[in-house]
Amino acid sequence: MSNRDGVGGLYDNRYEGSSYLYEERISIKDKEDFQNGVFVLSGEIDDKGASALIFKVLAFKEQDPQRPMKLYINCDGGSVTAGMAIYDTLCFISNQVSTIAVEKVSGIAALILAAGEKNMRRAYRGTQLSLGHFYAKPYAELGPEVLSTMEKIIELFAKHTGRTVEEIRELIALGAILEPREAIAFGFVDEETED
After folding, report:
1. Do the domain assignments include residue 54?
2. Helices 144-161 and 80-92 meet at what angle, rounded to 10?
3. Are 31 and 37 in contact (CB under 8 A)?
4. Into how many domains does the chain fold?
5. Which is nearest to 135 in space by CA: 71, 73, 83, 99?
6. Is 150 domain-assigned?
7. Predicted pLDDT at 27
8. pLDDT value of position 113
9. Considering only CA atoms, which of 157, 99, 105, 160 is closest in space to residue 127?
10. Terminus of the chain with fewer CB atoms < 10 Å: N or C?
11. What is the pLDDT of residue 19?
């Protein structure tokens, strides 16, 4: 990452290229989850939370670039740029990433969910998936730079779901909320799960 201050100012170049610093700063439970390749994206995505998750994922990748990981997502969207940083990281690493939707996933978090490894994208029963909530303004009122970013996001949704750009654009415009079975049919996830 280019932010040399690191997450919460914890960056220390003595440990560059090592997950040592991160491992020394987390709780026992977090350490177990980290060692098992279990990560959580919850709340609203912002720069600080995205940086923390990216740091964890890259540290895990450094330990074993072939070991699968799981990303549990219970997130109502948030910063599109921070979400895209998470998305880019998950696409960059060689580890297979299983994404699991828990309770509610919307906005940019829905793209992160859809970008999980094929046949490893799941949603818990009762989860709601929505593509809305990207920006506070209506789509027609967005500036050219934001519209360009939105078009890129729509294209990425189409790539990961196998749907057309027009179908994705319509879902976003409608503010549709999908239950797990609908999300499966639309290509956002591969299966519904209870465990």
Report:
1. yes
2. 40
3. no
4. 1
5. 83
6. no
7. 52
8. 98
9. 105
10. C
11. 45
